[in-house]
Amino acid sequence: MRTTRFAALTVSAVFALAACGGGDDSGSAASSPSVSAETSAGAHNTQDVSFAQGMIPHHQQAVEMAELADGRAASAQVKDLAARVEKAQGPEISTMSGWLKAWDEKVPESMPGMDHSGMEGMDGMAGMMDSADMDKLKKASGKEFDSMFLTMMVEHHKGAVEMATTEKAKGEYKDATAMAGDIVTSQNAEISEMKKLLGEN
Fold it and tell me: Residue 133 to residues 42, 45, 112: CA-CA distances in angstroms?
């Protein structure tokens, strides 16, 4: 009898421990997804949203300008710079679009005709070219294109640096502020490079 009673107590104790353990496991399992979701979607502020929504079309125009260089630029240095702009900013557009989707915020539409229809509402954005500027760039070639491209891209980069500097100071989302820091560093370096090509320093 004593052995049976001890066995019964042992079994009931095991079940009790299992129940407690199960409760803990299910609790942690339930909390894990919410923690990760909060990390990806919750740890941001309105500045982060504004940064992504503004920088996407800004980058799109820079890529559009850079694509024009392949058949129009005379300088190999200008073509190389344009290729680097495309390589850097294309992936950043995809990354920022992913953030906005995770945050359930509107993603700016792709703007293949940004120099015309896509420019609506963008006039006040720092460094953005208007449709007349883009038309001039499309019609230029050779050394004229090089000079025009570099002059416009310096202004465009300055606008991006201004936007990124604001994000670094006021943003909350770590990936966004890190990207903003990269933009400030890389585009300031390219501004110096472009000014040298223009003979300004």
Answer: 39, 34, 16
Structure tokens at 79: 């073509």
Q: Which residue has the tokens 């120099």?
A: 115
Residues 110-132 have pLDDT tens digits of: 654 444 334 444 556 889 999 99
Following CA atoms 55, 63, 126, 115 in sequence, which dihedral angle do they give, to the nearest 10 degrees?
A: -110
Write the single-letter amino acid at 90: G
Q: How many CB atoms within 10 Å of residue 196?
A: 12
Amino acid at 75: S
Please report how the helices 142-170 and 46-72 are oriented relative to each other, as an axis angle in degrees rounded to 10.
170
Distance CA 108, CA 84 (A): 23
Q: Is the pLDDT of residue 153 over 60?
A: yes
Token pair, residue 37, equals 């979701």
What number of other Cβ atoms are within 10 A of residue 159's Cβ?
Answer: 21
DSSP-assigned letters across all residues of the chain: -HHHHHHHHHHHHHHHHHHHHHHHHHHHHHHHHHHHHIIIIIS--HHHHHHHHHHHHHHHHHHHHHHHHHHHB--HHHHHHHHHHHHHHHHHHHHHHHHHHHTT-PPPPP-TTTTTGGGTT-TTSTT---HHHHHHHHH--HHHHHHHHHHHHHHHHHHHHHHHHHHHHH---HHHHHHHHHHHHHHHHHHHHHHHHTT--
